[in-house]
Amino acid sequence: MEPAQVAIIGSGLIGRSWAMVFAAGGFKVKLYDIAQQQLMSALENIRQQMKEMEKLGVLKGALSAEQQLALISVCTDLKAAVEGATFIQECTPENLELKKKIFSQLDLIVDDNVILSSSTSCLLPSKLFTGLKHVKQCIVSHPVNPPYFVPLVEIVPHPETDASTTERTYALMKKIGQSPVKLNREIEGFVLNRLQYAVISEAWRLVGEGVISPTDLDLVMSDGLGMRYAFIGPLETMHLNAEGVSNYCERYAEGMRLVLNTFGPVPEFSGETAQKVNQALSEKIPVVPKVLDARRKWRDECLTGLAKLKTQMKSD
């Protein structure tokens, strides 16, 4: 059987990563961008990443790197890129007008069966898709950067999205090895960023008030909470840290409320605290492209190793 086909709109970091995820799942991938040179650069980057991961034994999927690469083709014509696709993942820059323009163009050329999906990390579906003829087929599939190494995908419907679109998207994400979660309705920041911003907000206050240094604050997460959260979430943590959630609430609700009531207003993320945090992080990781790239590479290698460990632990 001919493998199913998907189209990726935009060949930047997220688009390339999505292309790799779908190819690993055995899908034919058409990667679209407006500039041929950008596409050639993207293909070469994908090739290098896949070859490196194959060498390290962490390549996703049952196919070899060459077999996966053979599934990916590039295209500078939007209509040709989406022809035959059952799923279209938009990965253009985080600009509302640009994304609306892309979806307006797609709305004119797709049929009634294809799913139109956006990688947006913060733009609400109601702002992206309202007024489109195929709005029932539109959805947000927000990945975590980089989606090849971090499998979570937030599936966020437009108020008019058909339930079957949500279910088909969820099933597709499961099929390609991602970890989809369904939001029942749209909300600013979705869920991942709301949780992330809550942590950043309190981290900022603690550093700003002189309670802890920026480097020690990061250590609290990386060698503390993060160790648990790599495998279980905050609600299961509550469940296991007592005799179930009800028991946890009986024991700790009063103390939690006491602490939470001391939280201040949302920080401005500027001024003296910004200088303090920037200085500490710049001393640890100088803001030089070569140094930052090396640290990002190290981060991705750690994520690869952690993903491999989690897969092993699930299969044991």
UniProtKB/TrEMBL annotation:
UniProt main location, coarse:
cytoplasm
Q: Which SUPFAM superfamilies match?
A: 6-phosphogluconate dehydrogenase C-terminal domain-like, NAD(P)-binding Rossmann-fold domains
Q: Which residues of this protein are annotated with the site description Important for catalytic activity?
A: H142
> By its UniProt entry, which Gene3D superfamilies does this protein fall under?
N-(1-d-carboxylethyl)-l-norvaline Dehydrogenase, domain 2, NAD(P)-binding Rossmann-like Domain
Query: Which top-level group of life is the source organism from?
Result: Eukaryota
Q: Name the GO terms of the biological process aspect.
A: D-glucuronate catabolic process to D-xylulose 5-phosphate; fatty acid metabolic process
The UniProt entry's GO CC annotations, sorted and at most eight, read: cytosol
Q: What is its EC number?
A: 1.1.1.45
Q: 3-hydroxyacyl-CoA dehydrogenase C-terminal domain: which residues?
A: 189-255
Question: Cellular location of this protein?
Answer: Cytoplasm
Q: Which UniProt keywords apply?
A: Cytoplasm, NAD, Oxidoreductase, Phosphoprotein
Read off the PROSITE patterns from this record.
Answer: 3HCDH
Q: Where is the 3-hydroxyacyl-CoA dehydrogenase NAD binding domain?
A: 5-184
State the InterPro entries in the record.
Answer: 3-OHacyl-CoA_DH (IPR022694), 3-OHacyl-CoA_DH_CS (IPR006180), 3-OHacyl-CoA_DH_NAD-bd (IPR006176), 3HC_DH_C (IPR006108), 6-PGluconate_DH-like_C_sf (IPR008927), 6PGD_dom2 (IPR013328), NAD(P)-bd_dom_sf (IPR036291)
GO molecular function per UniProt: L-gulonate 3-dehydrogenase activity; NAD+ binding; protein homodimerization activity
**Assigned protein family:** Belongs to the 3-hydroxyacyl-CoA dehydrogenase family.
- Describe its partners and assembly state: Homodimer.
Q: What is this protein called?
A: L-gulonate 3-dehydrogenase
Per the UniProt entry, what species is this protein from, by scientific name? Ficedula albicollis (Collared flycatcher)
